[in-house]
Amino acid sequence: SATAGPGRGALIVFEGIDRCGKSTQCSLLLESLRKQGVRAELWRFPDRTTLIGGLINEYLQKQASLNDAAVHMLFVANRHEKREEMLRLLAGGTTLVLDRYSYSGVAYTAAKAVPHLGAGFCRSVEAGLPAADLVVYLDLDPEQSAARGGFGGERYEKVEFQKKVRSQYAALADERWLRLDASQPAEQLHGQLAAAVRRVVERAAAGEPLGQLWD
Ligand code: 2DT
Ligand code: MG
């Protein structure tokens, strides 16, 4: 199996606006990886279970207010606090499936259009974190995502803001991104990412070095 190589686990990230189907796809992928004998874990960012994540949760639920720079740094810190554990798992051969990561950090903050919190600045503070081997970007029109049972009332869950986030994502995409039309049925979408996932899992197992943000 793909875990038998001398190398490492792969870092696979799901990105997209709210309610595009990331969590469903993450679960389907985790299940299928495990069925194939690939050792894998599913994490999500923000990780609301840490001290820092608790503050982020209060902010998102509108129980706390923080300025845009301060909350941005919390999201970043919430990744850095998990850095060593991520690196350890990957080095030990575990594939990590992430429901959001640094790409959300850049897209959501840059969408606010605060002059000193542009995409360049946002990228710079991710330095030292592992880069994704594959970013599965689930692209969806915000009008369609909003129609999926509506938003949950958290901060950012507004169609106008989601449109800005979507343009920021479009500007971030590079050759490591697989853009999929997220309006498709879940099983069909899952089928469309299997080959790309297999490829990065095999390359990682064969020893391809892990990249670093931001390159
Ligand atoms: P969930 O709905 O997936 O729990 O995300 N966000 C996320 C940021 O603004 N910056 C980040 O670095 C990350 C990881 C996206 C909650 C919201 O948090 C936003 C939606
Ligand atoms: Mg949400």
Automatic annotation (TrEMBL):
Q: What class of enzyme is it?
A: transferase
Q: What pathway does the UniProt record associate with this protein?
A: Pyrimidine metabolism; dTTP biosynthesis
Give a GO molecular function annotation for the protein. Answer: nucleoside diphosphate kinase activity
Q: Which GO terms describe its cellular component?
A: cytosol; mitochondrion; nucleus
A single BP term in Gene Ontology: dUDP biosynthetic process
Could you tell me the keywords of this UniProt record? ATP-binding, Kinase, Nucleotide biosynthesis, Nucleotide-binding, Transferase
Q: Per the database record, which ranges form the Thymidylate kinase-like domain?
A: 14-191
| Top-level taxon | Eukaryota
Q: What is this protein called?
A: Thymidylate kinase
The portion of the full protein included here is: 44 to 258 of 272
